[in-house]
Amino acid sequence: MSEHKDIEAKPTDQDSSEARRRRMILETSMDGFCMVGPDGRILEAYSSLCDITGYSKEELLTMRIADLEAQMTPDEIIQRIDKIRAQGYDRFETRQRRKTGEIIDLEVSAQYCNLDGEGFFFCFIRDITDLKLSQNSLQKSEGLYRTLCSNIAGMVYRGRTDWSTKIISNSEAVCGYCPEDIDSNRVKWFDIIHPDDRERVLNEASKLEAKPSTAVQEYRIIAKDGSVRWVEDHKTSTFTEEGVFDGVDGIVFDITEVKKGREDLKASEARFRTLSEAAFEGIAIHKNRRIFDANQKFIEMFGYTPEELGNLDGIQLIAADFREGVMEDIDAGQEGSYETIGLKKDGSEFPIEVQARVMQSQGDVLRIVAVRDLSLQKQLEAERARDKEQVFKAQRHAYIGSMGAIVAHQVNQPLTKMNILLDRSMDKAGDGSCCPEVIRDVEESLAQVKEAISIIRKFRDYAGDSSLGGMDMVNLSTVAERIVSILSAQAKQAKMRISTKGLSDLPEVEANGTALEQIILIIVQNAIEAADGQKSHRLAITGKCVDGNIELRFADDCCGVARENLDRIFEPFFSTKVDDKGLGLGLDIAQQILISCGGHIRVESETGKGSTFYVTLPISHTLES
Fold this sequence. Notes:
By secondary structure, the protein is of the alpha+beta class.
């Protein structure tokens, strides 16, 4: 207040002009400006501060900082004042309450002055609410952006008619040079403008000489440390009462980080678009059930143009019979994966898997879906099911053959004895000691026994005949991978992980492919059935050449076989499976097939640690059932 009294008591032209210029700068500044006493009372306020707070100048001059503050407590305000007085300067962010009750974010640059023993504070106040909202918006839309610089210092300056510059404050924060460097013309502001921007800036600024006007320019400067910075220059031209150009008043903001943020956003959007276009799935974004963005894969999958998709309700891409269930999930905001039937533009239907996620972006609720065409997968599953059924049929046929051979062998012996005994009876009856009726009965019985023996012989011939196909060169790796694929679902359910190693290095064998499949199927299926499904197990299938033979090794880590059962597991109808899950014929069949071609099978097992089956195959022998 004493400064005001001195100015009023002893005004000079130079002081008056300087005060006027300062007031014009402060009045045109985007930042609010005020003077505050040591007790927090507002001593002077300018119109820009009135605009920020919503209070008139008269109202502000009756208030203290604590009346506006919405973040700091009274004690914290006193601590802040003491800190500024001790340091001489401070810059900080806070929140204040406008006259309407609205809370706004502010950046405050405060400097302590002591004139004639009376201390007070100069305060520049910037409304950074929009900047905060912009930062939050970037975070919501991208999710990857860093918080932009919260303290963007503004350099207040006066541009003279010859375009030399007088710095008012904060030049170090913008360009690294102190005010004395620029005020003394040791460094000219025009010279630190980037050479590529210098002519454009000067041409645009020269238009301000024609009439009072305001311009906002973006350009680059070369800072004291050699770095290139982007600045935003807000300037207003001033004229004398006679209409003569008197210079410009302005504020320069360092917007390097803001520019970088914009470029990062563009780059991020470009990366997202690139990733989206490179994805194997069709990706679409729904807003209010309308598709407003989709990648090329999605467009190709359903056959619509981007313009046509933009006018569609997403549910129209689902086959009519499945829309009701999908609509219920959409209305409930359900997320996750589900399978349904898609509908193309041409009316054709196809199976799809949909991964859906709901997210918020700038206040909008978006539903993002990734769609995968399951047509090929379903086709392969159907083919695997057919292949599996064929293998199972072959296995059942082998079971019947094995059982038939055993039954035929067991029944043939008593029938042979009956045939011999009946022949003897007929020989004895030929001496006439038996009545004719007995002889006819014996003859009829003998005929029936011979018929039964004939039937048994035919059944044995059928059981011993191969019905699995001819010989061919067989790749063991292909056969093993085929069986593993067929049993993959069953293995997954049993928590059994199956791996193959070294099979691709084995030579092809001359064999019956179906017989090989049956052997591997029996061993792998037994291992899967040995898994308890409670914890994870593994089955490793490996192979190597040993002495002109191929040795396949099937090692699992399941429950193993008790020592007393090891010698019996290859017996027909012997099974260690609980709940009558097996007939006990599988390993017997595998053994018989191997024996028929000069191969063999053996097992090593330890209870609680697992079993290992060794299958030896001659490389060039026939493998037929």
